[in-house]
Here is the input.
Amino acid sequence: MKFIYVALVMVLTLSGVQAQQRQSINQEIQALKRQVIALNRDLYILEEDLLFPTNTQVAVYLSMDIGKFFELDAIELKVDGQTVTHYLYTEKQIASLKKGGVQRLYLGNVSQGDHQVTAIIRGIGPNQREYKLGASDTFTKDKKALSVELTIRDSLEKEQPIVEMVRH
Here is the structure.
């Protein structure tokens, strides 16, 4: 009987030690996960800096305001006549844009000098008919990063959608 009692005490003691070791290992694993996430973030930032240096970087974003006269379906973006993005939208993505979301359409490199950005936007316009919007702008790229925002908004005066292109 003493033997069983001693064996039981030893098993309970060892299981307590193992539980502490497991907890310690779990804490180390969580710390390693946090370090990996931080390293991944740093690598992503470094990659962005290497692939898209500030002196050649151009970013194009899309936003929407209201959307009463236009239901977005697709967008094609051209830089200097070359198609760089063609995107089809889901209902959830359109809902996000209508709630104030902003989508990065393009991030790329261009040399310093004059360049043209053209956007062709397709969707359903007034009276549920197919509608095509276009916007084009020429900009001069200098040493600073350039971002361009395309905004689709309703023109209450004209009762139709319009596209604005603003450089930041």
The chain has a mean pLDDT of 86.
